[in-house]
């Protein structure tokens, strides 16, 4: 198996210790530059895209034109991993022009937490697009100190009926196992932010009814595959980044188990020691430090359809992963790595099937990637 330390039988937790070699030759074109970009979303029916910058700007990008600021964006708590986060058009965007936006807000006594809001994107004024009616519909709770592990990724169910939000454990470890709070969880909500009916802990007095799954650390990717299954991509500690198939009521183990160890060097029991907890389909040691991922839907990259394409901050490129259903569960295999020479924060598939990446940090480039033959 490419990139794995040893062959694994179906259902085993696959740990990648050696990167798979590059197979696909690509052509990369620079499109624009942004200041600490974090997320990107193409507007349905358009090649225009919204791009968030962590310090608190939302940009409207169009190929060949200067990016424009979107007015009406809230003030954010910027610093560390905090700031303006994800942006996703509503399932009914074509009719409603509504978008969902996440960011970090300040709380009392130096605390903070992520929020998700929705509002209407008005594009009628060419000079400056605007968000109106922006209303917070969800909050991370409780707000705690620190500036890390907010997660705040957003995904909609394929039928457009439900909103899923990744909520990090805020570097506090134990909240990920506490069912009374929504830290270290993936939550499933109605589109207005209320807990969705049928959630696994609905009606239980000792659990938060928002919760879909728990035992998560810092989820920076959240996406549905072609079969309608939800996956997450999350940071491990010192080792052990992981891709998980997310199912209701499942406990993904953090901080009880991991395929990595704590940053102070203290060991963490491995996933294999706790078969009652859900092991990842694949994990990485050394880490790739993921920024986000997609399941590729297009035809431009032949043979990629249905595969997961992950960004890497530490690995500095893209990691292509195939997922497979087996009799004992889902497994994953790293197919190749495409080096891009910088930390990659975000990835989206364009309407033309090309890949668009955002580099991390100040002066992060928006870059278009196509197969080398298509770009020649």
List the helices and strands and how they pair.
Elements lengths: L13 E3 L9 E9 L2 E6 L6 E5 L3 E5 L6 E2 L14 E6 L3 H4 L1 E9 L5 E11 L7 E10 L11 E6 L5 E6 L17 E6 L20 E4 L3 E7 L5 E6 L5 E6 L35 E3 L5 E6 L12 E5 L4 E10 L2 E11 L4 E6 L5 E5 L4 E8 H4 L1
Parallel strand pairs: 1-18
Antiparallel strand pairs: 2-25, 3-4, 4-5, 5-6, 7-8, 8-9, 9-10, 11-12, 12-13, 13-14, 15-16, 16-17, 17-18, 19-20, 20-21, 21-22, 23-24, 24-25
Give descriptors for this structure:
four-stranded antiparallel beta sheet, globular, disordered N terminus, five-stranded mixed beta sheet, Neuraminidase, mainly beta, 25 strands, 43% strand
Q: TL;DR?
A:
The chain has 376 residues and is mostly beta strands. 2% of the residues lie in helices and 43% in strands.
What is the helix fraction of residues, given as a range?
Answer: under 10%
Mean pLDDT: 94
Coarse morphology = globular
Task: Supply the CATH class.
Answer: Mainly Beta
Number of strands: 25
How many structural domains?
1
Radius of gyration: 20 Å
Distance between the termini: 32 Å
How is the largest sheet built, in terms of strand order?
1-18-17-16-15
The residue ranges in which pLDDT falls below 50 over 5 or more consecutive positions are 1-11
According to CATH, the homologous superfamily is: TolB, C-terminal domain
Number of helices: 2
Largest sheet descriptor: 5 strands, mixed
């Amino acid at each position: 198996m490419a990139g794995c330390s040893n062959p694994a039988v179906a259902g085993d937790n696959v740990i990648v210790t050696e990167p798979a070699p590059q197979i696909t030759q690509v052509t990369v074109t620079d499109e624009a530059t942004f200041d600490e970009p974090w997320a990107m979303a193409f507007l349905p029916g358009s090649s225009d895209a919204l791009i968030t910058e962590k310090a608190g700007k939302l940009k409207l990008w169009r190929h060949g034109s200067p990016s424009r600021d979107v007015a009406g964006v809230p003030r954010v708590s910027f610093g560390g991993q905090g700031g303006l986060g994800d942006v996703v058009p509503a399932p009914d965007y074509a009719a409603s022009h509504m978008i969902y936006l996440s960011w970090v807000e300040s709380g009392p006594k130096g605390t903070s937490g992520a929020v998700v809001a929705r509002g209407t994107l008005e594009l009628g004024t060419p000079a400056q697009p605007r968000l109106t009616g922006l209303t917070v519909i969800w909050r991370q709770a409780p707000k705690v100190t620190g500036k890390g592990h907010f997660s705040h990724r957003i995904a909609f169910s394929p039928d457009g009926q439900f909103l899923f939000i990744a909520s990090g454990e805020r570097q506090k470890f134990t909240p990920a196992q506490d069912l009374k709070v929504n830290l270290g969880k993936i939550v499933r909500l109605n589109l207005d932010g209320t807990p969705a009916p049928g959630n696994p802990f609905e009606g239980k007095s000792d659990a938060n009814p928002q919760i879909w799954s728990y035992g998560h650390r810092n989820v920076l990717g959240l996406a549905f595959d072609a079969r309608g299954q939800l996956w997450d991509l999350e940071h491990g500690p010192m080792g052990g980044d992981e891709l998980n198939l997310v199912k209701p009521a499942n406990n993904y183990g953090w901080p009880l188990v991991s395929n990595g160890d704590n940053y102070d060097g203290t060991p963490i029991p491995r996933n294999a020691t706790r078969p009652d907890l859900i092991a990842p389909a694949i994990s990485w040691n050394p880490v790739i430090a993921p920024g986000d991922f997609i399941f590729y839907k297009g035809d431009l990259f032949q043979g990629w359809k249905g595969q997961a394409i992950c960004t890497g901050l530490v690995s500095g490129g893209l990691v292509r992963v195939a997922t497979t259903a087996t009799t004992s569960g889902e497994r994953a295999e790293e197919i190749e790595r495409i080096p891009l020479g910088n930390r990659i924060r975000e990835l989206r598939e364009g309407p033309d099937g090309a890949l668009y990446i955002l580099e991390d940090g100040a002066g992060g480039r928006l870059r278009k990637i196509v197969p080398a033959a298509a770009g020649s």
